[in-house]
Design a protein that fits this description.
With 268 residues, the protein is α/β, with parallel strands linked by helices. It is built from 7 helices and 10 strands. Strand 3 and strand 4 form a beta hairpin. The protein is globular and about 50 Å long.
């Protein structure tokens, strides 16, 4: 049962496995590919999957619009592809729906702010852990400062990068709900505890994956630079790395294995 004497509601973690609204009960059973890429690059999805280039398996309908989940044929087999939205709550909610639709092994690819000086635009980072400075993960795991990503999944992603001679770093990322509250002091604090990047979703996605017993890992690329006294956008949203990173994620998702100790979904 949840704690009744927590100082803050977000600390009242409830470990009950079944909630009032369960995604698999809501969606029914579908036939999405087991390997799925969560791609934050809309223009890449449209280029690769749009206009009939990939089959739409299902769609996730939210108040702002609909996100299609495609089945993309690749040299590594059929891989699902969808845009997870922006921010921890939406990304977590759509991951829940993708799991309910049949996904089992997930790789996200997105951009992140560079927290450490000298992290060049486009440099690839594979998170090994995430600081939980967002709210969504606290509804899936007991309160804690960080969440570790599954080492085997991280190894799969780094192995793909190594096989293609892609320079990369592994380390900690900072997941926050408030991109307009990344103050100089707060950034310095995160850098001091070892964070390489800042983004909005990794901690929540990792928490959902652990709760549901599926595999998850993430590719990030260094986008804007928040490591100095002034923000440097660096034109990061038009970086050519985005398409390359997507295809690396497709390969990694196809090669990902189930987690070693999956927790059984109560509605499986």
């Amino acid at each position: 049962m949840p704690s009744s004497d927590a100082d803050f509601p977000i600390l009242e973690f409830d470990p009950t496995r079944t909630a009032l609204i369960e995604p698999r009960r809501r969606r029914g059973r579908e036939a999405a590919p087991e390997a799925v890429v969560l791609c934050f690059f809309l223009e890449v999805i449209e280029s690769v999957c749009g206009e009939g280039r990939a089959e739409e398996v299902t769609a996730f309908s939210w108040e702002h619009g609909t996100h299609s989940l495609y089945a993309l044929e690749s040299e590594w087999g059929t891989v699902g592809v969808y845009h997870p939205g922006v921010g921890a709550p939406m990304a977590a909610g759509m991951l829940e729906e993708a799991i309910a639709a049949g996904g089992r092994r997930f790789v996200a690819c997105g951009g992140a702010g560079a927290v450490i000086p000298g992290l060049a635009l486009g440099h690839v980072v594979v998170p090994t852990s995430a600081v939980r400075d967002e709210g969504t993960s606290y509804h899936y795991l007991a309160p804690g400062r960080e969440i570790d990503l599954e080492p085997g999944a991280v190894d799969t992603l780094t192995g793909v990068l190594t096989s293609h001679d892609v320079p990369h770093l592994t380390g900690k990322t900072w997941s926050t709900d408030a991109p307009y509250r990344e103050t100089v002091e707060r950034i310095a604090r995160r850098r001091a505890e070892g964070c390489l990047t800042v983004e909005m979703e990794t901690a929540a996605l990792a928490a959902v994956a652990r709760f549901r017993g599926v595999s998850f890992a993430q590719y990030l690329y260094a986008g804007d630079d928040v490591s100095g006294e002034a923000w440097d956008h660096r034109g990061w949203t038009s970086s050519s790395i985005r398409t390359d990173l997507f295809w690396l994620a497709v390969e990694a998702a196809a090669k990902l294995q189930d987690p070693p100790s999956a927790v059984q979904d109560p509605d499986a």
